[in-house]
Task: inverse folding
């Protein structure tokens, strides 16, 4: 069977057509992409999109359909074997390599993230239970985290992977706490210090493995995706040694349904180098000897809405952003946001918030609700 016919047959299982008339159909401009996709899977598909070899009006729907139909099971390129072997054999998230994602992704430019994100610059999943817009969804997420941690005035809080300080700023202003935030991005420290000026907040350009101080509460929102399976136990030991005996630790992370090494090769090359998503058993295995799990909350479907809002902001601000970023970047970033939205909509990816205590709260734990 010819390559084009084989791909057309695969896509038919997801009700997607080549050069069809519906907004989720692929419009192919260069048929050479077919062989590349079969040879290199999503790495070839993503790079072909970046080159302009194909287009799709609704990339999010396309990926939702592809993932729902499990089409990836039919394309397992041997050329990607080394990508998975590296994740299994090497520690791709060592102390030396931990800085690569900061330089590659988070230091891209504060102008990009200011244009794309909400007013507080929260670069993690919003909470859309009652929110009608991105600003409200991110405010509600931060409020929910503060309530889950049972914050009180005067507490000292450690934020592992603090970004631009959105959680620390919200917690300091609304709960009267003092915060120390760790990040591997120089750009985040520079802007974060400006945004949090005058508040009891300290930014540190520091790897999480190097912190060993007492805190009343520990939080990590959207950083565990960069830790890697070989370092999960180390991460948990750091959180445990820094947490007060009666304190709570909240871990917010993207997760996946199955135990798979490595990450999507296109995402690894162009968006998050050395990233790796955990499954539930990874977190349980790394934490069970150190913590008591008080609560697990899954609101992964909310990331679909969050990513679509980010993409709308990115598209709206592209006229001014294109002064600093080229057309290839535009296509890359659109592919990133919309393919991920489709993955969350298909429930191929999840978002979990775990709440841990050191010894188990004697009075138990009740998940707080928003008013």
Result:
């Amino acid at each position: 069977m010819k390559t084009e016919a084989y791909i057309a047959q695969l896509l038919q299982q997801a009700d997607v057509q080549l050069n069809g008339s519906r907004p989720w159909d692929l419009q192919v401009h260069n048929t050479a992409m077919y062989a590349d996709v079969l040879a290199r899977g999503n790495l070839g598909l993503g790079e072909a999109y970046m080159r302009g070899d194909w287009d799709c009006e609704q990339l999010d729907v396309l990926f939702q359909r592809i993932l729902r139909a499990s089409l990836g099971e039919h394309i397992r390129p041997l050329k990607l074997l080394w990508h998975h072997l590296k994740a299994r054999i090497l520690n791709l998230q060592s102390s030396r390599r931990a800085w690569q994602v900061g330089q590659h992704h988070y230091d891209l430019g504060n102008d990009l993230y200011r244009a794309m994100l909400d007013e507080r610059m929260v670069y993690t999943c919003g909470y859309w239970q009652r929110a009608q817009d991105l600003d409200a969804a991110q405010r509600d997420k931060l409020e929910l985290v503060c309530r889950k941690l049972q914050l009180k005035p005067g507490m000292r809080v450690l934020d592992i992977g603090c970004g631009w300080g959105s959680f620390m700023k919200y917690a300091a202003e609304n709960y009267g706490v003092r915060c120390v935030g760790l990040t591997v991005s120089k750009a985040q420290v520079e802007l974060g210090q400006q945004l949090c000026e005058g508040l009891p907040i300290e930014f540190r350009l520091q790897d999480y493995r190097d912190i060993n101080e007492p805190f009343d509460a520990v939080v990590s929102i959207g950083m565990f995706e960069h830790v890697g399976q070989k370092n999960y136990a180390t991460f948990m030991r750091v959180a445990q040694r820094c947490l007060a005996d009666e304190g709570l630790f909240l871990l917010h992370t993207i997760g996946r349904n199955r135990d798979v090494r490595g990450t999507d090769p296109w995402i690894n090359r162009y968006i998050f180098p050395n990233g790796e998503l955990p499954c539930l058993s990874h977190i349980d295995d790394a934490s069970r000897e150190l913590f008591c799990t008080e609560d697990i909350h899954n609101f992964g479907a909310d990331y679909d809405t969050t990513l679509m809002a980010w993409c709308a902001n990115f598209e709206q601000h592209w006229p001014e952003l294109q002064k600093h970023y080229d057309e290839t970047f535009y296509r890359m970033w659109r592919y990133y946001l919309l393919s991920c939205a489709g993955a969350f909509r298909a429930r191929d990816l999840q978002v979990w918030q775990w709440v841990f205590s050191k010894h188990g709260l004697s009075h138990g734990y009740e998940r707080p609700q928003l008013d």
In short: The mean pLDDT is 90. Residues 301-321 form the longest helix (21 residues). The two ends are 59 Å apart (CA to CA). The chain is about 45% helix and 15% strand.
